[in-house]
Amino acid sequence: MTRPVRVVWLYARDMNVYGDRGNVLTLARRLEWRGFPVTVTEYNPGDPFPADADLLVGGGGQDSGQDRIHADLHALGPRLAELAARGTPMLMICGMYQLFGRFFRTGEGRVIEGLGLLDLETRAGPRRLIGNVVVRHPDLGDVVGYENHSGQTFLGDGVRPFATVVRGAGNNGRDGTEGAVHRNVIGSYLHGPLLPKNPAVADLLIERAVHRDLEPLAGTADRFAALSRRVAMRRPR
Ligand code: GLN
Fold first, then answer.
1. pTM here?
2. How many domains, the chain?
3. What is the ipTM score, two decimals?
């Protein structure tokens, strides 16, 4: 790739809780450490959408934040669908994960329509699902994070789970699944933020953005990630 890799942070202003911004920083840093120039574009409602998005990241937010971005997200929908169909890697956390699905029905019974890029539905349950989470990814092993959501998400046949729950609630606290994957779109409830704690997930997204295999990075950041994984495994919920 001759131009910088463009990371687009969807709805940076309204959808950014529990350190989700760290996911963007991690992607940018790990790309730079490997010698790829990077441009990070923060996208907010009404902004022009960049023509050359290589990697998209979205964070969590309160129901009110989801309401604020909803109209703009739908206007952007066909563009995002085209990028997803082309295999553009995307990481959508919690509130954005829900809105990449078909809908989110809030605790008050309001329905916020999603894009339907992921075959899943979310309804608020009787209690919030809050706490540290450990999940097992089929290729990457244990992944840790933090969840805080009222929505309970149920997957359709068009997606596969991102991981299975070892500790915590995950998608709905019932079926043992966490997150969803379709093509290179990953949705997950894991804040934490996810990527600094689990650099292997960051590298998975980066590999798909730059279309090549990556050598592992040896350094303190990855040692810190391994340590934080061990601590999360030990900590009671
Ligand atoms: N508002 C959504 C819910 O409560 C998403 C929360 C979040 O992004 N942390 O389920």
1. 0.93
2. 1
3. 0.96
